[in-house]
Amino acid sequence: MCIKVSKQLSISSWNVNGLFKRISGNRVCKLDDDNICQIMTADIVGLSETHIPTNEILNYDGYKCFVNCRSSDSNKVRGGLATFFKKEILSGVKLMDKTMDDIMWFKLDKTFFSFDRNVFLCFLYIPPSNSSYTLRTNFDKQIFEKLEADIAKYSISGDVILMGDLNAHINCKELDFITNEVDDSLDNFLPTNYVADSVCKFRNTQVHQKTNNYGKLILDLCTESQLRILNGRTLGDSKGKITFYNHNGVSIDDYCLCSSEFLPNIVNFSVGQFEPTISDHCPISITIHSQLVNKSCDNYVKPTLRRVKWTTKREEIFKSNMLKVNFGTINSDVDNFNPKIEANNTCNSNVTQSVNDTVSSISSILYNGH
Question: Which residues constitute the catalytic centre (predicted)?
Answer without folding.
Answer: 125, 165 (proton donor/acceptor), 281 (proton acceptor)
